[in-house]
Amino acid sequence: MFDNLKKRFGGIPKSDREIKLTKQALEEKIIESLVESDASVETAEEVWRRMQPALEGRSRKLSPGDYAGILRNAISEIFEVQKAATDITAVDKRPYIILFLGINGTGKTTTIAKVAKLLKDKGKRVVIAASDTFRAGAIDQISIWGERLGITVIKHQHGSDPSAVAFDAINHAVARKLDYVLIDTAGRMQTNKNLIEEMKKIRRVSKPDHTVAVIDAMAGQDAINQAKTFMEQVSFDSIIVTKLDTDAKGGSMITMAAEIKKPILYVCMGQEPEDIMPFSSEWFLDRILPQ
Ligand SMILES: Nc1nc2c(ncn2[C@@H]2O[C@H](COP(=O)(O)OP(=O)(O)O)[C@@H](O)[C@H]2O)c(=O)[nH]1
Ligand SMILES: [Mg+2]
Questions:
Q1: CATH 3.40.50.300 fits 87-288, yes or no
Q2: Which of 112, 121, 123, 171 has the smallest count of CB within 10 Å of its CB?
Q3: What does the pLDDT look like over 262-290, one tens digit per residue?
Q4: Which atom of ligand 1 is nearest to the CA of 113?
């Protein structure tokens, strides 16, 4: 995981001798490492800019340890946005309604199964709204997860109004005093006006307590642009990043923090319900930086 970034960062000062790089050469190497690992140019420049106060006033010699520490602090600052993260597994309101948004195929449905299992394992009572009525097979897919996990899925027919499904699931939860309603939705391209309008309607009708954008780590820079466009149309509160078990390079996660400025709640690394874990920036930094 993130080997690309780690290798690049690790290769910057290969020895104490090499650390006598000119400032310009160091800048080039840092920015190149980040951009080659899917961070945006703006984010890479922000990391470099945040390194400046620590680099200024130092002698030209910098040990590899110093360099790693300065880089770590700069990226940590960008992840301060994590302080705003909500622990969605420990909330007071009941039912707590979570709406999941994202482009097609990013892993929304699988992520809902994972979050549902996480909640169930904590003793919470959950219902899922099969509000992806658009894609053929979507209702079956979420129903199979529901059966596997022992969680009720509220569904209507293929092609029916997704907002009505969400509405029914919420009523189901209220009547039975359930703890959570997780709303699955159809993947939509930010360019598809009808689907965006439909999304806004689901939001209006379901009045979610929390909206999660599910973003595929493999999508790189493109994923960030998608999320940004989403936010302009339908705002969201936090991010879940999927597919970290693939060869995602990791730079896009720094861009998410820097440019989307929403906390990453969980990361997913596989196709099974247990392949999810809470995100921590310390965990991430340990994986991308040389020790
Ligand atoms: N390797 C891997 N595959 C995932 C992960 N999350 C989802 N997938 C797969 O990605 C594909 C699309 O997932 P799905 O949940 O249907 O996406 P949706 O269209 O956003 O609902 C499926 O084949 C999932 O098994 C993950 O964390 N890692
Ligand atoms: Mg789906």
A1: yes
A2: 123
A3: 999 999 999 999 999 999 999 999 988 87
A4: 15
